[in-house]
Amino acid sequence: MDRYPSSLLEKAVSEFAKLPGIGRKTALRLVLFMLKRSDSEVDAFSDAISHVKKDIKYCKICHNISDTDICPICADGHRDGQVVCVVENIQDVMAIENTQQFHGLYHVLGGVISPMDGIGPNELEIESLVSRVAEGNIKEVILALSSTMEGDTTSFYISRKLASFNVRMSVIARGISVGNELEYTDEVTLGRSILNRTPLQK
Amino acid sequence: MDRYPSSLLEKAVSEFAKLPGIGRKTALRLVLFMLKRSDSEVDAFSDAISHVKKDIKYCKICHNISDTDICPICADGHRDGQVVCVVENIQDVMAIENTQQFHGLYHVLGGVISPMDGIGPNELEIESLVSRVAEGNIKEVILALSSTMEGDTTSFYISRKLASFNVRMSVIARGISVGNELEYTDEVTLGRSILNRTPLQK
Questions:
Q1: What is the tens place of the pLDDT at every residue in B181-199?
Q2: CA-CA 20 to 30 A from B61: which of A37, A146, B87, B93?
């Protein structure tokens, strides 16, 4: 057990060490870095964290993080409101936005079904997705969840929930990554990439 | 460039990304983790950081971090006030304390001489070390600086500064690490370990 020369220091280190992926050595380095910064820089840091926690909103439509009740994507009239892409979290929204290939709306579940972690369908924004689809404006739901057992389970659950609605369902393509060599791709992925082959554009 | 759905989120991510070793992706993960925590947990985090910055003191004797004007080590009457170990920063104090092999006092320089980074002798607590030695109570000064060019330069500078005083000077041993195999030790270290060999205890 490390002995800290100061209880204030130890407290700050403990708080940093609660963050994911940050151990006590890194935490100490971060706190000592903080001590070297100016008062105003440290205030800016702790204010930014307090503010984001207190004032952040979640979009009432898609549950993405937002400064306003309706997020900029849902509020954007130029986007296609008939297509909704279902994702796990806001990092996934940002990742898809960065591709610039999708111009519809999103629905952020807030996780995937994972009984091991105590996350059932009721912990996720699935009912609100069903309500959105029930309104009748949505023509296609794209499931863009992780290619894991939990992701697949959630995709299956959602597809059953939406089965009674007149809405097209699709799943993002599984296949070999762009830039990857065939021989190093695992066999399940390779098998999927053959099954889901796409016709060549002539 | 990532597009954040919220300016509050972007601000918090930018603040986290200013910390050493934390990129924007990690920063986003940390902020989203913060959002999942309770209000009181987030307050505890930002309070701990504000407090450590505002209320931390530096020991008036050894310049170690402390809650009080004199740090617990300097205030401890059981420690040997005749031996002072000169270190670069407080992590080094903690590392040496963890060995439980040293029972003297410390002197924290706050860095090493590094002209490339604009750090000269005047930026470090060298004058205050000279003053401590000039008081006449110190019998031995142990230089425990990093085994780098900057560390060696600083050791040399300090040894010259203290040359006129009647004080024993020593440098911590350089040699092969405990548990390391000889054949994988670099030749400079191995050479030093032979030069500085210690007599076997019979």
A1: 888 888 888 888 888 887 7
A2: A37
> Does A32 contact B98 at a Cβ distance shorter than 8 Å?
no
| CA nearest to B95 within chain A | A2
Choose the closest CB to B94 out of A2, A12, A94.
A2
| Same-domain status, A73 and A136 | yes
* CATH code of residue B25: 1.10.8.420
CATH of the domain at A79: 3.40.1360.10
The distance of B129 to chain A (nearest Cα, Å) reads 20
Name the H helices within B24-148. Answer: 24-36, 39-55, 72-75, 90-99, 126-134
ipTM above 0.85, yes or no: no
Q: How confident is the model at residue B5 (pLDDT cuts 50, 70, 90)?
A: confident
Q: Is residue B1 part of a domain?
A: no
What backbone phi and psi angles, to 5 degrees, belong to B190?
Answer: -65, -45
Is B35 within 8 Å of A53 when comparing Cβ atoms?
yes
- Which domain does A47 fall in, by range? 7-55
- What backbone phi and psi angles, to 5 degrees, belong to B165? -95, 155
B65 CB neighbours in chain A (<8 A) are 5-6, 9, 35
